[in-house]
Design brief:
With 413 residues, the chain is of the alpha+beta class. It folds into two domains: 261 residues, Conserved hypothetical protein from pyrococcus furiosus pfu- 392566-001, ParB domain (Alpha-Beta Complex); 142 residues, Conserved hypothetical protein from pyrococcus furiosus pfu- 392566-001, domain 2. It is built from 13 helices and 21 strands. The strands form five sheets. Strands 1, 4, 5, 6, 8, 9, 10, 11 and 12 form a nine-stranded mixed beta sheet that branches. Strands 15-17-16-19-14-18 form a six-stranded antiparallel beta sheet. It has a two-stranded antiparallel ribbon with strand order 2-3. Strand 4 and strand 5 form a beta hairpin. Helix 4 crosses helix 6 and helix 6 crosses helix 9. 40% of the residues are buried.
Length: 413
């Protein structure tokens, strides 16, 4: 079973939501965020990436950044751009991209469920990124960005959610980045809140889809608060963190492509041909249409690669396409052993399209690019259920949850 509960959301008014809502802090560089922030003083980036309001020579990890985030959060509330709901509620968050809707339950989940393994992960975290969000949560005393969780679809939850949406108007309804439509409903009926809460008590596990660093950070701050406030009850807000829960059958994983800056040996294609069937495609972008196939962009041309059966990998991890590429190309041919730390490789989310791979290679920033077939949701859940860890940068989810629509106050300062 997992525990969810309603909370007093800190959120914008219906009129201001479209201006406050921003892309997540971790999909934008400081430079990109600064440009968006300059043109929009109400952007939540002033809270989630507060370095944009400081001098360009200030490190994003400087103490002043977290203090600025805290003061900006207070200022947004003083100006009425954000306001705290009077009573605990649940919320529904629907995103529609390319005509495909996905509807999640905005709630608070328990840090104890993460500690016990009822909230399952499939990725490792990087220490510097984790420390950044720990400090952000700790200093602001708030979860400012939601964790994107999923679960195996439940008939009762689906019925309750569909019934609420069918009989209530959304409090937010706007279009934002990449043409995605965002709709929010407040679930303020105590009986419906109880039904949903009890329904999740019968759901055995939640899975982190996106937000491993935010989850680790929220949990560690919560555990820290327990030490600081030993007399606080089990219902203290810091024992819970902000999450949005989506049924897995509504989600789609996009490709997470690779660009690499390495010298290309004269016999490189011959080496690749030992393990892959190769087709030279030419100028037309090659987007893999099935597992065990890859696109490769080199010297202005696209190639289609299909791994030979004996090199396809065996087991829940080794058979993933990201593992096959690493095991058969990146490591043996390029010497890239750890893609989390090797600065010769970078990653491009599928939302940016394959043209970005071409541009990065044609500009000389990288020498070769690979387009990937994405893992499935079943792949992700199977890996997590097996207690395994996916290779880094395996999954790219779209559409992204916007930040600024909900803040969870830890209420400990």
């Amino acid at each position: 079973m997992v525990k969810i509960r309603a909370f007093k959301g800190i959120r914008p008014s219906a009129k201001e939501a479209v201006y406050v809502a921003s892309l997540p802090y971790d999909v934008l560089s400081t430079e990109e965020a600064r440009k968006l922030g300059v043109s929009n003083p109400m952007s939540f980036l002033h809270i989630d990436k507060a370095e944009i309001d400081l001098s360009a020579d200030v490190s994003p990890y400087d103490d002043s950044v977290y203090r600025k985030a805290t003061s900006n959060l207070a200022e947004f509330q003083e100006k009425g751009w954000l306001a705290k709901d009077a009573k605990p509620e649940l919320y529904l968050y629907q995103l529609v991209m390319n005509g495909r809707p996905q509807t999640g339950l905005v709630t608070c989940t328990a840090i104890d469920d993460y500690v016990s393994g009822a909230i399952k992960k499939h990725e490792l975290t990087r220490e510097e990124k984790e420390l950044d969000r720990i400090r952000h949560v700790d200093v602001t005393d708030a979860n400012t960005s939601p964790i994107f969780l999923t679960y195996r679809s439940d008939e009762l939850v689906n019925e309750v959610v569909d019934a609420w949406i069918g009989s209530h108007k959304p409090v937010y309804d706007f279009e934002s980045f990449h043409g995605v439509k965002h709709r929010i409903w407040t679930v303020d009926d105590a009986d419906v809140v109880r039904v949903l809460t009890e329904a999740f008590e019968a759901i055995p596990a939640l899975y982190i889809a996106d937000g491993h660093h935010r989850t680790e950070s929220a949990v560690k701050v919560g555990l820290k608060r327990r030490e600081e406030f030993p007399d606080a009850g089990a219902d203290a807000e810091f024992n819970f963190f902000l999450s949005v829960l989506f049924p897995q059958d509504q989600l789609e994983i996009l490709d997470y492509n690779r660009v690499v800056d390495v010298p290309i040996a004269a016999d490189f294609l011959d080496q690749v041909a030992l393990k892959f069937d190769i087709e030279k495609v030419g100028k037309e972008e090659y987007k893999p249409a099935a597992p065990n196939t890859f696109g490769m962009y080199l010297d202005g041309s696209w190639y289609g690669l299909k791994v030979k059966p004996e090199f396809a990998g065996d087991g829940v991890i080794a058979s993933l396409d990201v593992s096959i590429l690493a095991d058969q190309v990146l490591t043996p041919l390029f010497g890239i052993e750890d893609i989390r730390r090797d600065d010769r490789i970078n990653f491009v989310g599928g939302i940016r399209g394959l043209v970005e791979l071409e541009q990065l290679v044609d500009a000389g920033k990288y020498t070769i690019a690979f387009s990937m077939y994405p893992p499935t949701m079943d792949n992700l859940l199977d890996v997590a259920d097996a207690g395994e860890i996916m290779p880094p940068k395996s999954t790219w989810f779209e559409p992204k949850l916007l930040s600024g629509l909900f803040v969870h106050d830890l209420e400990s300062k």
